[in-house]
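Researcher: We plan to redesign the surface later, but first we want a full-length starting point. Tokens attached.
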């Protein structure tokens, strides 16, 4: 009787696991399904300079089409030119995609460095540059040791998914927030503000924005703590 119960329990667990795997949607699949409709409407919005409407369309694409899917595993290169896979990162991942021509606000990198120093034991902070090794190595000097800087050189890359989906579909810079299993919890665009803001004000704006994503998606049980520190630096 005990053996029979164990057999039934094992069969149930196997079937349940198989069912979960069958229902798993990859990011590439979700994007292929929802991107064409989004692009048609977004191009129209940008043509009419309806930037608020374009942002609403992007948010809807993320909320109703891409959130909940699992990022495909793919490889990129470390600064020592050795390959590393996305799934090699076991913690929740805060991933930002960049290119050398992306102009960040003056406070973004300092804010990210502060947050990475504070939460690196719980989150993997990853910066992915779509650039050459030389350009990426130079840009990496701005980030602290708690942030992993990687790159994909499109001239050498052979993974069509990485080039056609992750980079060219959503634009740059784009932030992906993923849990430890690489399920996408949110996708965000970078912070933008007028150049009149001072450095400290820019840092505070970026800190608040980045922290909001971290606190609401990546910190787990810490987010429910009543002792959570204030968001703003000042």
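Model: Full-length starting sequence:
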């Amino acid at each position: 009787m005990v053996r029979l119960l164990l057999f039934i329990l094992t069969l149930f667990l196997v079937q349940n696991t198989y069912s979960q795997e069958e229902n798993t949607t990859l990011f590439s699949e979700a994007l292929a399904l929802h991107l064409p409709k989004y692009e048609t409407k977004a191009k129209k919005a940008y043509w009419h300079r309806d930037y608020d409407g374009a942002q609403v369309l992007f948010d809807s694409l993320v909320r109703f089409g891409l959130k909940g899917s699992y990022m495909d595993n793919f490889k990129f290169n470390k600064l020592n030119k050795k390959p590393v896979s996305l799934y090699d990162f076991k913690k929740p991942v805060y991933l930002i995609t960049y290119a050398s021509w992306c102009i960040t606000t003056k406070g973004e990198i300092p804010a990210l460095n502060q947050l990475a120093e504070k939460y690196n034991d719980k989150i993997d902070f990853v910066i992915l540059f779509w650039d050459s090794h030389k350009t990426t190595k130079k840009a990496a000097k701005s980030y602290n040791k708690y942030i992993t800087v990687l790159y994909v050189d499109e001239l050498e890359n052979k993974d069509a998914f990485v080039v056609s989906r992750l980079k060219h579909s959503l634009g740059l810079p784009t932030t992906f927030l993923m849990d430890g299993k690489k399920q996408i919890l949110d996708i965000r665009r970078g912070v933008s503000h007028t150049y009149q803001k001072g450095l400290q004000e820019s840092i505070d704006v970026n800190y608040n924005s980045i922290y909001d994503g971290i606190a609401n998606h990546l910190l787990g049980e810490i987010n429910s703590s009543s002792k959570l520190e204030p968001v703003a630096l000042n």
